[in-house]
Amino acid sequence: MLEVADRPLQTDESPTTRASTPISLNAINRWVPHDIVMRDSWFPVAHNYSVTGKPVRRAIYSHPIFLWREDGVVVASEFHPNERIARDKSVYTDVKGHYPTMEHYGVVWVWFGNPQAADPVHLPSLPFLPPKGGLPKHMTATVRFESSAPISLENLIDLTHADFLHADVVGDERSDSETVETFYDSETVTMVRTLVNKSVAPVMKFFSGIRQPTQNVRQVIRIYLRSHCAIAYGQFNPGDDVPLFHPCTPETRDRTRMEMVMNTSNAGLMFRHVMPKAGYKVSRQDSYMTSPQSPRYMRHTDRKDLHSKFDQAGQRYRMAMMELAERQEKGDFAYRDNVSADCSDIIGLRKELFQF
Amino acid sequence: MSLQKDVWWAVARSEEVTSDKPLSVDIGDQPIVLWRDNHGIARALEDRCPHRRAPLSLGCIRDNGLIQCGYHGWSYDGETGRLKEIPNMKDQQKFPPVYKATAFAVSEQAGFVRVCLDPKAEAPASASPHYKYSGTANVSLRHQEYLDALYDDPSLLIAIRAVHFTPYLMSELHEQGGRLVMERSCQWKTPHWPAHFVAEFPLTLLTSTDPVSGETELTLRDDQAKELLHAVLAPVPAARGVTAVRWRAELGERHAGIRGALLRGSNPLSVLSSIDGTKLRTTKPTVSLHGEDLRAELRGATHDSSQPPVDRTVAA
């Protein structure tokens, strides 16, 4: 069930008002994302074109994953086929040391957790990507962050930094009005930010040919907590609809891999090709802050982070992650909400643009 | 490492602190950001935005003298550390007192910017003049080891133009006016008999060290008691066991002849950033053997042993 985050988050001292939530605001403001390890989830580990007959190496929480194809079918093993095996098999693979794996949305997914619990029904819904893949390569990229995956996702859901840190790409903070709404369930957090008459993103000015000084913007960030995947969907008027698949796969607890896919099929020729590449620039700008930030969240501190009204979604994300982590720590790995249900309506996807 | 909270550390040279770009320094594990506000006053805050812990030194200095975090644009006042502005907040720019970054006491004298981790500390009195030559070196030695090397063989750490340090002391390390003082015989570098064949040494290097901060005044004198060179060496314990050394120097009286002229060439003093590990390892502790004890004794006499709390998550 989707709930609206209407709890005030303006002060540090406010106690939590959600009876079923044992996580206090104080705890949220002192969270240690480095300690959060999620399991029983599908993690996106590679673009499907990256996996060929020759094994490639990936990891989830430092557990090795080797990917290759046998008769066209992806194999995900914790051992390299040529490896002289000198270590025990983990509990996350079958008797042959293979992880459950599947291909969907043009991405290779690996199930990390109890192999018996692997089920395609737990695959996140990404309705703007063709289920069988096939988007051109120029709409994809691989980016790495030297920070923990939750830090990278908190960065994503916190859109106020974008106006500041990425102003040269997405435009500055000037707008006539701004509203932020946050929705959540036990597996997802979704934020909708609506801006009226915002400065036009430079990247759109140059590559989409927008001549107006301002545009109305609706930005949606939807995070699938367990798999550390996110949707970042921007609707720009005048401008284009730009949905981005933004996974943050925790290869280690403080190194993150992003196999991103930006579906710019409906945009103009220039923008279609250039915008996905902006990910390289934006990610470097983010890393400039998140790389030194992340180690400061590796240990517990008594000092609480401060926050503003713009951090409501980020606070909700922290709380939801901590709740889920706490549940997993107690041995409860069940999904209480369905992550594969079509989320088009939640993110406000203009379906007519994304027919597959 | 634990540090006394009431010590004034020379963490920067005056010219390093500007209103153009924040400067990141550290005292032990405590990261600090320095800048000059719009009145030209040097300011010091913890190099950590209390919002999302990003280093403030990655941000910028605004025209109004506030430092602005580069991540979300929160702006802080340097004197109090109080949060003054959040972008997009429009007219709601009033924040509770808890919304602040940690501010440290700052004092600027004699070409050094000194910071004390105790924000209420009184600025130290300093009679040192502002010396012309200056530099900064980051040395991979811990603070005490740096002082030990300085006492045992200064050539491991510094070079004075045209001057050779001998191992012979004219005065062992002793307490004088609350400071650690010693005097080392020196020779000119020009051809001369080896030190052990020489009856009289033409130069001495007098060192006087603050037992707490390790800040050391160097005076090079000739055999006519002319003071040829003055310098201040300010070693500060920095992150990862590095000692950050800020120094300033000035030439004094002229020593007659070609040797004196050589000393007066450009940059009379060099402070080395890299240490010869082999030479360091094989340098037998002599002065430092009782120097550490003497320093601890003097330090205990002048300061209590209270340690500042250090947030290990910031040191990362």
Main attributes of the structure:
heterodimer, A: 356 residues, alpha+beta, Naphthalene 1,2-dioxygenase Alpha Subunit, Chain A, domain 1, Rieske Iron-sulfur Protein, nine-stranded antiparallel beta sheet, three-stranded antiparallel beta sheet, 15 strands, B: 316 residues, mainly beta, Alpha-D-Glucose-1,6-Bisphosphate, Chain A, domain 4, 2 domains, seven-stranded antiparallel beta sheet, 5 helices, 14% helix, 36% strand
Describe this structure in words.
The complex is a heterodimer of chains A (356) and B (316). Chain A has 356 residues and is of the alpha+beta class. Chain A contains 8 helices and 15 strands. In chain A, helix 2 packs antiparallel against helix 7. The two termini of chain A are 28 Å apart. Chain A is globular, with a radius of gyration of 20 Å. Chain B folds into 2 domains: 109 residues, Rieske [2Fe-2S] iron-sulphur domain (Rieske Iron-sulfur Protein); 170 residues, Alpha-D-Glucose-1,6-Bisphosphate, Chain A, domain 4, CATH 3.30.530. Chain B has 5 helices and 19 strands. In chain B, the strands form 5 sheets. Chain B has a 7-stranded antiparallel beta sheet with strand order 11-18-17-16-15-14-13. In chain B, strands 5-6-7-8 form a 4-stranded antiparallel beta sheet, with no helix packed on it. In chain B, a hairpin with a 4-residue loop joins strand 16 and strand 17. The radius of gyration of chain B is 22 Å and the shape is elongated. Chain B starts with 7 loop residues before the first strand and ends with a helix. At the A-B interface, helix 3 and helix 6 of A face helix 5 of B. Chain A: This is Oxygenase. Chain A: Keywords: Oxidoreductase, Plasmid. Chain A: One of its GO terms (molecular function) is 2 iron, 2 sulfur cluster binding. Chain A: It holds the Pfam family VanA_C.
